[in-house]
Amino acid sequence: MFHELNRKNPRFLFQWNRFRQFHASCSIGPRSQCFFTNFFTPPSQSEQIFLLYENASGIFISYACVPRRNHVIFFVRRGGLRRSIKTPFILSWSWAMAKPMGQATLSYEVSNCRMPPIDLARFTGISTAEAQSRFIRDGPNELPLRENRGIIGIILDVIREPMFLLLVGAGSVYFILGDFGEGALLLSFVLVIICITVYQERKTERALEALRNLSSPRALVIRDGQLVRIAGRDVVRGDLLFTSEGDRIAADALLLASTNLSVDESLLTGESVPVRKLPTEGKTGGRRPGGDDQPWLYSGTLVVQGQGVAEVVSTGMYTRMGEIGKTLQNVDHEETRLHTETAHIVRSIAFIGLFLFLIVVIVYGMTRGDWLHGLLAGITLAMAILPEEFPVVLTVFLALGAWRLSKINVLSRHVPALEALGATSVLCTDKTGTLTVNRMTVAKCVVAGSSFDCLAEAGRPLPEPFHELLEYAILSCKKDPFDPMEQALLKTGTDDRSFTEHLHEDWELLIEYPLSRELLAMSNVWWSRKWDKYIIAAKGAPEAIFDLCHLGEREISVLTTRVEDLASQGLRVLAVAKSHFRPGQLPDGQHEFPFTYLGLIGFADPVRSDAAAAIHDCRTAGVRVAMITGDYPATAQNIARQIGFPDSEMVLTGSDLEKLPMNERDAKIHSTSVFARVVPEQKLQIVESLKAGGEIVAMTGDGVNDAPALKAAHIGIAMGGRGTDVAREASSLVLLDDNFASIVAGIRMGRRIYANLKKAMAYIISVHVPIAGISLIPVLFGWPLILLPVQIVFLELIIDPACSIVFEAEQEEPDIMRKPPRDPDEHILDRRTVAIALTQGFVVLGIVLLIYLYGMMRGLTADELRTLSFVTIVVANIALIFTNRSWTESIVSISRKPNKAFWLVTTGTVFFLAAVLFLPGLRSLFQFAPVSPGYLLFCIVGGMLTVGWFELYKITHARIRKAESS
């Protein structure tokens, strides 16, 4: 049997000895068994591969099998267990641990290049009874459910809102008047408000649910001396977690033993580079995510390399993940200023309308003795003043704005955030993946006295002097690596055609020596058939490699200076060494190999090509950008320098921030643009400090750690590509391409939305002034009524699409990104806007009254006067829409800018006007009368002249601004 397995081969003897050591270390019970196979050549279909197992009585053949095309099927008789194990054919083994028949069986695949795993026999864990007791006392390992309001409760809260009551009241008035279309439209917006509120409530619940799912994975624990796989929610304090590559950690734990353990903590730190973990050995240090060689493991993080045994110290809400969930639960979205201001405007105008309604009814009834027509006149005035367009415009603008944002890869989850987006004064962004491409890349290679800049020389083949350095750096990696730096090394080698001869696909990986607390370096031992010897490749921290190579003090001093220079450029630096060894018994430690130093390799996460231009656009627009990262200060500083951050030399670290007193801390936050080594709570502190200082804050993030800050910011922006579900649920916007430039485009779009919304609201005021005036003045002066309800409905058909579609589709002003962010205390209807709107409205009212009086002087009938006044108002409406498309450009310039919605509204209005003027049935319904073409031309010219003064104002204002700027 052993002859068939080439037992005398020294490589087999080495592996078999390793296997025996491995079996001794992993035996977890008196009757446990290990199963093992080994072969050195690809077996043919006729060959048999033997499955061996060892117990106290010796080594036995359990079964023989025939290999399949790309895997071997082993049949194990004991307990009827059947396993299909897929492994490489050359130089590989597979093993499994089986408990006595009737108990669950755990199966693993372990490559022969691994070091013997952790000695589990020395760990017994807590008893099942003790675990149950602690579960009852501490509760499940999950985030507790918050008591949520039902849909009925949410609806009742909405009903008490003034905006809701006004909309219902306005809709009821229209129903009483028989205008069921307008009434139904207003009530439909009631449903929109309810849906938005329900959506907001459910969004918080989904964020917490995502946290619960993430923080409660399956867990492998040691209880009663046995490995048991349980639900993550059943993990309790004191449990011993056994973690290996690919596992998500179920609870916060303290590492007791490990083999080459690395963990991806990007959920908590935002940094994609895994961190190395080492056992506690009595030194626990600060319990904070991020940084190498810490003994703490955190719930929800991912093991990317190695194995470990850790004791659970916190579960559920007491984990770091739970603390974030608690913070997220307590942070609420604020009501936007625009909604508050719009509600105030609607209330004010509604009260004015109610007051004027009563005056008109009383005056008309008392002066003319006709209370029924007085009521009709009052209703007409109320309809003219009723501000139903404001909530309509706000809803339509924000909805269409969200659609436009999606076209530039910004997905809106919280529509009111669009208001704040255009007012953003501080943009807090993380570094990795937003300003950088989130892909570790070989940046520099250093050999002896020369270096090669791989980024600057991208596309150029690696010079020959650097081939050996990269060759052994790749040999020190796994064949299919998880580690980002190992992936970068492999990509550099495979992308360079001149380097393919150094990849050694035919070499066989025998064993790897992992990192340890004592030596921060790892080595791979390879077997070369051609050279008939072991080749050893090592990489690690420069000081560790210097130690392995036994370099002299002078040489170490020179190389250390070089390492510091690379680190100051924001690079992560590894040193590389090589060695060889004749076949035989390999040593237990790396120090026993005669290593030769080869050189240094610097890694970087390259800056996005458009990041610098986007930062410049932000500065031009008066938006301060703050980079908040969990990375090292030197790395953050280098990235800031590359993309043109102001004051990039000044970096504030999380530890420095923690030491500052409250008053100094706020001042420092407001004057700093680069923050490094920042933890989740500090991100939230930074956002809240900026908000307290009056800033409108936008915050980007991708991990669980960012969720509270995302939700607390005025605009939370989550990453769509690499972001977590928790971050996306807590955010207002989702960046679909994870690109910083898209955020700047979003700010531009936000400013456009707000500017166009201001124009639309100003237009609403200006057009309602003449309608209200014409409804009120005839009553006060005893003239015949000019406008009737049906005519006001016609005007609403112009006003509604004009203010909600035409202005929304208007392009931004040319200088929109050269203006500073608007004052957060600025009203959308500020004094200048209201003054312009009222002036426009009163000018139109004056022209209409002049034409009305002219017609009275010419002895026209009431229906003829009504016709002339109505035509003038409609033409003036079209002119107002045209001139208000831009408050800085003339009508001539505006006409060159495309706006299909304007021409559609204008064309439709002209056709409707022609129909009511020239079709007898409609003309009678509107109580109009035929008039001569001369009168119609007179009204058209008068309506167009109403905006002449505003065109002169724009020209004069532009000249003044130009003179001031020069």
What can you see in these coordinates?
By secondary structure, the protein is of the alpha+beta class. The protein has 6 domains: 10-112, no CATH class; 151-214; 219-330, Calcium-transporting ATPase, cytoplasmic transduction domain A; 410-437 and 608-738, HAD superfamily/HAD-like (Rossmann fold, 3-Layer(aba) Sandwich), CATH 3.40.50; 471-485 and 503-604, Calcium-transporting ATPase, cytoplasmic domain N (3-Layer(aba) Sandwich), CATH 3.40.1110; 760-965, Calcium-transporting ATPase, transmembrane domain, CATH 1.20.1110.10. Helices cover 46% and strands 17% of the residues. The protein is built from 31 helices and 29 strands. The strands form 5 sheets. The protein has an 8-stranded mixed sheet with strand order 15-29-28-27-16-24-26-25, sandwiched between helices. Strands 8, 9, 10, 11, 12, 13 and 14 form a 7-stranded antiparallel sheet that branches. Helix 24 (789-806) packs antiparallel against helix 28 (900-918) and helix 26 (862-884) packs antiparallel against helix 28. The chain is elongated and about 120 Å long.
**Assigned CATH architecture of the largest domain:** Up-down Bundle
CATH topology name of the largest domain, in short, is Calcium-transporting ATPase, transmembrane domain
Main beta-sheet annotation = 8 strands, mixed
Number of helices: 31
The strand line-up of the biggest sheet is 15-29-28-27-16-24-26-25
Q: What would you give as the CATH superfamily of the largest domain? A: Calcium-transporting ATPase, transmembrane domain
Query: Low-confidence spans: pLDDT under 50, at least 5 residues?
Result: 1-116, 211-216
- The CATH class of the largest domain turns out to be Mainly Alpha
Separation, N- and C-terminal Cα atoms: 96 Å
